[in-house]
Structure formats: C-alpha cells, structure tokens
Amino acid sequence: MRFDVLTLFPEIFSGYMTQSLLKLAIERSLVSIHLHNIRDWSRDKHKCVDDRPFGGGPGMVIKPEPVVEAVEDVQGRDQQTGHVVLLTPQGRQLNQTLVEELATHKRLLLLCGRYEGFDQRVSDLLEPDEVSVGDFVLNGGEVAAMTLIDTVIRLVPDVLGDENSSRLDSFSSGPYPENKRLLEHAQYTRPREFRGLEVPEVLLSGDHTAIAKWREQNSLERTRERRGDLLEHTDSPKQEPKP
Ligand code: 6GU
Fold first, then answer.
1. Distance, CA of 134 to CA of 150 (rounded, Å)
2. Is position 169 annotated as part of the catalytic site?
3. Of 22, 103, 178, 213, whose CB has the highest number of CB atoms within 10 Å?
C-alpha cells in the first residue's frame, strides 16, 4: 500500500516512519510513504503558501494554487492515482469501519492542513474524502494523518506478525457479527499475584473453551460499562420481532 502525504511539515513524520512496525513494513515493501512539501509548489519567491482570509478574521488560510498543483503533479507521476483524503475536523469521523474502507485502496493521498485550513476551492476542485479523527481541534492534519496511516497499515496483509492480533483487537469485528464492535477483554501476564491482586483463576486453567467464554463475557461487560453506545449500533434487533 502506498501513501503520498502532502504537508507543510514533512519533518513531523520522520520519527514515526523510523518506528519499528512501520519501518519493518517499509523495509519489506508492504507499505511505502512518500512525503511532499506543499511549499515546493509555491510560485512565490518567498515560498509563501498562505494568506489572510477574505472577510477578515484571525489566522491564515492556505492558498489553493500550490495545493491543487501539488496534488495534480503527484497524481500525474504514476498510472495508478491515489484516493485523495483531506484531514480536517469537518470530515467524517474516523472509526474502524472507515479504516477498513480506506484500507481497500492501493494508494492514498493524504492532504494535511494547517492554520485556519485550506481555501475552500481546494475541496471544491479536488472533491477529496474529508476525514476527521475526532471532535477536538489539532494544530494541523499531520498527527491525524499519522493516526490514519497507523490504523490502515495494520490491515495491510502481512504487516502484523500474527494475523490474529488485529482481528481480536478492540473495535475489530473479530469473532463477533458484522458491525458489532466490542472493546477488548482484560489481559494479564506474570506474576500471578501483584500487590494482592490476582489473575482470574480461569485464565490459569488451561481450559480454552472456558477462557474464550470468560474473555467474551469480559469484553461485553466492559463495552456495556464504558461504551454502551457501541452496543446500540448493531444490526441485530434489540427486541425479538413479535410472531
Ligand atoms: Cl483531521 N485536523 C485538525 N486540524 N484537527 C482535527 C482533525 C483533523 N481531526 C480532529 N481534529
């Protein structure tokens, strides 16, 4: 899977890209990340890419020309173009279902905004898939882009060592019916007892059926307690239909 990232701050990605899982995936050619500095498409002699908003107000707006031209250039370099994603708090909110959808693309082109955002005509012309990572304000789209990359690459075949570790995670559909997303069950490792707190007996029993049952129960309980909203969005009817 290939990512092209258009940003004013490509350096932000360097630590993340040299981190183990992603680094390994890049080395194994399962994932590639190409960084592009939007400033390189500035026509201005001072490499200026932003300007004051028409109508007044605080902050600066990123000009449309360098962004649209950068996207067109990067898209034009290869036969296969990328699905264009614009990271913005105004987009549809990222969740595991959207991550799965994004992971179906062979190539994604991520546009990271800064300041007060891009000139509206960037969206009008490119019609990107606008994605937000949550209802809060980040200083820019870079951290959101890394979040998106991090969640998507987990679904690229062979990126994770153990196939199962992604399937059983919180929010993955896992062994549960489609769309029914549960939080992951509690995990324990040695020692068996720590400061008076003991590991649940069943996990030490070696009885795999009992363990699976305990884990499923624990998942459900936790989800009900912490994220009841997740249980409301299931396809299964809340009540048995009357005969
Ligand atoms: Cl994608 N960008 C910014 N700047 N803030 C956000 C966001 C994105 N998602 C949530 N908040």
1. 15
2. yes
3. 22
* Ligand 1 centroid, distance to 110 Cα (angstroms): 13
| CATH superfamily of the 168-231 domain | tRNA(m1g37)methyltransferase, domain 2 (1.10.1270.20)
- pLDDT for the residue numbered 239: 47
Contact 73, 42 (CB under 8 A): no
Catalytic: 154? yes
Residue 152: Cβ-neighbour burial (10 angstroms; 0-12, 13-18, 19+):
buried
Q: What is the pLDDT of residue 161?
A: 79
Per-residue pLDDT tens digits for 19-70:
879 999 999 999 999 999 999 999 989 999 999 999 999 999 999 999 999 9
Distance of CA 129 to the CA centre of its chain: 13
What CA–CA distances, in Å, run from 196 to 191, 192, 193, 199, 200?
11, 10, 6, 10, 12
Mean pLDDT of the chain: 91
Ligand 1 atom at minimum distance from 139 CA = 4
Prediction pTM value:
0.89
Structure tokens at 193: 């007892």
Ligand 1 binding residues, C-beta < 6 A: 87-89, 132-134, 136-138, 140-141, 144
| Whether domain 2-153 has CATH 2.60.130.10 | no
Instruction: Say if CB 2 and CB 105 are below 8 A apart.
Output: no
Q: Please list the residue range(s) of the chain that carry CATH number 1.10.1270.20.
A: 168-231
Reported as a single tens digit per residue, the pLDDT across 192-241 is 999 999 999 999 999 999 999 999 999 999 999 999 999 985 554 444 45
* Tokens 């500095």, located at residue: 37
